[in-house]
Amino acid sequence: MVSADNLNFDCLELIFAYLSGNDLVSMSLVSRSFLAAAIPRIYRRLFFGLNQAKRYPSIISPFAAILEHPNLASHVRHIDIRAIPTMKYAPHPKFLHDCSRTMSLCKNLGAFTCTLDVMPAFLLSLQAKDGLESMRFIGNLTTDQSEQLAQISGLRELTIDTSSWNLVNALPKWMERLRPTLVSLTLYSIQSLNVDILETVLPDLPNLTRLHVVGCPRVDHTAILRLLSHTPNLESLAFTSYDSSRPLPPVISPLPRLRHLALDTQYAPTPTVSTPALWTTMINLTRTWSCPLKSLTLRLSDKIAVADSFITNLVDSHHATLRHLAILNCTLTTDSVAKICRKCTELERFALSFPAKDSHEFAVAAAKAKRLHTVTEVGDLHSSHTPHPPLTKHDVRTIMRHQPAIEKIIADGRVWTVRIFSL
Prior knowledge:
Helix content is 33%, strand content 21%.
């Protein structure tokens, strides 16, 4: 007789692939066979966040657990460190030591993420990881440390969140090493990054499909558009544009494979112009290139009202393919929201500030959408005035009644979900 306890091990692994967190841990307590099947999933990703850091060392970190049971290190594929406990206002030395030793044991490590400025502590441990394909870190390194980091090869995805000039200078040499494999490059808020470095780096990356250069003040939109000639296979592009008198390049290389576009615009609106000219230019270019955009993110530094004519051009250009649209720190008219919901038949996720903070008007507009399942109310990102009233349960019910396809509404730090028959 077949029971849950004697199910084939492969079947249990397939079942547990749909579980995570506490559910997975609870299943591992059922029996020895369940524990054996759950362990690879439990230790596949080692995560350490703020909640764990606040309670350290009263709780055992996942890194200490691996050190106590080194055989579990073979299951680790991703290390994700989002917070680090401190001792006397400095990173806790024992924690850093445990992390470093654990990384050395994880021979099958495929991804490393650390959003804290402690990268030097892990440089030795990350060497000789043949399976390492993805890295995200803060690159405040010395010249010697940068050269050591540049010895890492085989990466497919690289994200650098701020960096010292030492690492920026080492980028050309490192990119040459990553030439055969790198497909995604994200450079965020790097003050010393300049156009000359990018002109050296990008020709060495023929396989690049994702390029994101955001918040790097010495690399403006004009430079990015000129450098597109080196990256004809891009599927995802994100960059920051700044107020500049420099003209756009006379010829901009087409990106027919572009699917995802994000524009972060540092822009001072004038009384006569409400929508940045670059936005219109980019929408016209993507239309000319015949690239079917699936996602579009537009963000402004100063809050403005987006012109209806721009929304009309956007919808006419990409209504058949757009699945995700985010318009941040901007206001849309109710007519524009209704037009987006009515004509963008593939739209699944929509992030915006509700028109006039009226949930009922948005509900009526959203009723015209066919596939919309997730809505994010972004509010005022930089509001200095009295904050708008948060969405109430009644507001959420109103929206979901008008558009039953909506499964999730994110607003004011809360996530509202709907269950069948809950309304």
